[in-house]
Amino acid sequence: MKKLLALLCVVALLVCMLAGCAPKGETPSGGDNKKQNEENVNNDGDKTGDGSVQVGIVLPTKDEPRWLQDQAQFETILKGEGFTSQVLFSQGSSATEKTNVETLISKGIKVLIICAQDGAAAAAAVEDAKSKGVTVIAYDRLITGTDAVDYYVTFDSFAVGAAQGQYLVENAPSGSGIPLYLYAGALSDNNAFIFFEGAWSVLQPKIADGTFVIANSSEAEALKTKAALTRDEMSKIIGQITTEWDFNVAKSKAEANLTAVGADMKGDVLVLAPNDGTARSIADVFASDKDVSSYVVTGQDAEKASVQYVIDGKQSMTVFKDTRTLASDSVAMATAILKGETPQTDTTYDNGVKEVAAKQTNIVVVKQANVKEALIDSEYYNASEFTGL
Question: What residues contact residue 15 under an 8 Å CB cut-off, 6+ apart?
Answer without folding.
Answer: none
